[in-house]
Structures are given as structure tokens and as C-alpha cells.
Design brief:
This protein is mainly α. The protein contains four helices and two strands.
């Protein structure tokens, strides 16, 4: 039931984005997984032999990242694939 929920939510959010990109000639594919975001992104990028990970950063300050952590910081620390952070 949990897997179905996550799959449906992923399709609901990413479906329109994929369709938009396809209309503009970009053959986009999506992949959704459940887990700790930083770890899952890094492991997926490496196991999927991706060329690059592009990740948005919310731009929180150093104190907020220290207290809450940051997915971008975790991916940067764990990922061996080149990472492009977009702010």
C-alpha cells in the first residue's frame, strides 16, 4: 500500500513535467525511490551510471544546514558522480 501511494504520487507530480519535456524534444525519463534522499540519490546515480546529478539548493544558511542537514550536502558528500547545484 505504501509503495502504491509513493508510485502514484510520483506519477502525479512528474507526469506533467515529463510530458512538457517530451513536447519540447527532450526524451526524459523519471525514477522514483523511497528512503533517505541524500543516500538514495547518490546510490542511484552511481548504480545507474549517470553522467551528472543536477540538484536544486534551497540556499539555507550554514546554521540551518548544520542543525537540519541538507540533501544537497549529503549528496555532495556521498556521490562519486559529478554534481551540479542550482540555486
Amino acid at each position: 500500500m505504501v509503495e502504491t501511494y509513493h508510485r502514484e504520487e510520483s506519477e502525479r507530480v512528474l507526469g506533467p513535467v515529463i510530458q512538457f519535456l517530451l513536447r519540447h524534444g527532450i526524451d526524459a525519463k523519471s525514477l522514483s525511490k523511497v528512503g533517505h534522499a541524500g543516500e538514495v540519490i547518490a546510490k542511484t546515480a552511481e548504480s545507474g551510471h549517470f553522467d551528472m546529478v543536477v540538484l536544486g539548493s534551497h540556499g539555507h544558511g550554514a546554521l540551518a544546514n548544520l542543525v537540519m542537514g541538507s540533501v544537497a550536502t549529503q549528496v555532495l558528500a556521498l556521490c562519486k558522480v559529478p554534481l551540479l547545484l542550482v540555486r
